[in-house]
């Protein structure tokens, strides 16, 4: 006679993905087995299907829900409907709009200089030349990867203004940030945390093509590459998580996963480029073999915390 493991008291976890990847990305395929080693039953589930299953799960973990930026309102409403979600819905709502960078800067975190330009605002340069007088980036406040983002030289102000207007016409606010040239040489360093504890790191090469097509810059390529981040980078990453916890009223350990993307400024000091708390790629395939087990342990700790 077989026994249903759920009735035997094993917790049930759903790993949320999206319809184009019902079995998730190859980078995440080790997670169900790692969770199983700790006595946790899990499976992949498309986030906008089978609502009853999400209601009955002991925990729903956002993973490869990579269509959320094009369906943000629907996605956030779904997150708020899930009784047990990691990361929590209020974290998702806050982190889905890159305005959080300004909040973290106000909290004392070292952040890449960022200006938000909303639809209806006077676009920089209409009356006063407020765009950076160095290479800069324009990108949407809601978006993933490099979609909708572009690099511009100071003399390309008209092209940048057209990019801003294009984003505004789509109903999107925009960020304007000075481009950090060290990215072309060193890339961005991503630090991954599970339950507030550092797990592993990797480097991403520059995602945006140079504004000057004749520059001949080679850079690092797209990457990613495994790395062991320097202590200074780890300190800033932990400062970011602590400041986030203060802003959102959550303990660092309540962030089941986090990816902190850092760059070095021209003075060599680390700065936050992005904080990924919704569905970041964690690059388990680049990490040591124990990384999925560290993730599973963090899930087990989250289950215990919620059951207490």
From TrEMBL:
Keywords, ordered alphabetically: ATP-binding, Nucleotide-binding
All residue ranges annotated as the ATP-grasp domain in the record: 101-304
Entries under SUPFAM superfamilies matching the protein: Glutathione synthetase ATP-binding domain-like
PROSITE patterns: ATP_GRASP
GO MF: ATP binding; metal ion binding
Membrane spanning stretches: none
InterPro entries cross-referenced by the UniProt entry: ATP-grasp, DcsG_Biosynth_Enzyme
PANTHER family noted in UniProt: GLUTATHIONE SYNTHETASE, PTHR39217
Protein name in UniProt: ATP-grasp domain-containing protein
Species the sequence originates in: Actinopolyspora mzabensis
């Amino acid at each position: 006679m077989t026994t249903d493991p759920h009735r035997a008291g094993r917790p049930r976890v759903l790993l949320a993905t999206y319809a184009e990847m019902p079995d998730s990305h190859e980078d995440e395929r080790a997670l169900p087995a790692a969770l199983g080693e700790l006595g946790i039953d899990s499976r992949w589930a498309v986030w906008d299907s089978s609502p009853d299953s999400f209601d009955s799960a002991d925990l729903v973990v956002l993973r490869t829900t990579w269509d959320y930026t094009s369906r943000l309102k629907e996605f956030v409403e779904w997150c708020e409907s899930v009784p047990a979600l990691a990361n929590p819905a209020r974290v998702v709502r806050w982190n889905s709009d890159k305005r959080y960078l300004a909040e973290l800067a106000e909290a004392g975190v070292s952040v890449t200089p960022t200006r938000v330009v909303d639809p209806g605002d006077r676009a920089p340069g209409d009356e006063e030349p407020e765009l950076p007088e160095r290479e800069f980036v324009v990108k949407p406040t809601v978006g993933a990867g490099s979609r909708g983002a572009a690099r511009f030289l100071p003399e390309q102000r008209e092209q940048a203004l057209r990019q801003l207007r294009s984003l505004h016409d789509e109903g999107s606010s925009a960020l304007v940030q000075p481009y950090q040239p060290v990215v072309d040489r060193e890339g961005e360093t991503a630090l991954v945390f599970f339950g507030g504890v550092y797990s592993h790191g990797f480097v991403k090469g520059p995602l945006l093509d140079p504004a000057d097509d004749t520059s001949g810059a080679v850079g690092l390529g797209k990457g990613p590459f495994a790395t062991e981040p320097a202590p200074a980078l780890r300190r800033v990453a932990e400062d970011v998580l602590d400041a986030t916890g203060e802003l959102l009223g959550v303990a660092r350990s309540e962030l089941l996963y986090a990816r902190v993307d850092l760059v070095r400024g021209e003075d060599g000091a680390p700065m936050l480029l992005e904080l990924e708390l919704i569905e970041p790629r964690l690059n388990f395939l680049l990490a040591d073999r124990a990384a999925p087990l560290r993730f599973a342990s963090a899930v087990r700790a989250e289950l215990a915390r919620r059951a207490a």
